[in-house]
Design brief:
With 86 residues, the protein is an all-alpha fold. The chain is built from 3 helices and no strands. It has helices at 5-30, 36-45, 55-84. The longest helix is centred in the last third of the chain and has 30 residues, at 55-84.
């Protein structure tokens, strides 16, 4: 059985961008102490993202998450398909 590279890329991008970064950043806007360590760690990985509780940073983090998750999902599905057929 093969995985759809496109489907996996979209699913992973949405999961990481929306659930991982957007909702975490949004929760940090509401509760300032929520996930500050996680957001600071992501700020060290994503250039231009600061991990501060501002709407602009939440959007930048979500966009980075969408891109990062999409690439990771596509690579995962491609590797799975390569090794599953071996």
């Amino acid at each position: 059985m093969k995985l759809s590279v496109k489907g996996m890329a979209i699913a992973a991008g949405l999961l990481w961008g929306v659930l991982g970064m957007f909702l975490t950043g949004l929760a940090n806007l509401i509760w300032n102490d929520y996930a500050t360590g996680f957001l600071q760690m992501m700020a060290s990985v994503y250039p231009g993202y600061h991990g501060t509780p501002t709407l602009g940073d939440v959007i930048v983090g979500a966009l980075y998450g969408l891109l990062d998750g999409t690439i990771a999902g596509a690579i995962f599905a491609w590797l799975y398909n390569r090794f599953a057929s071996a």
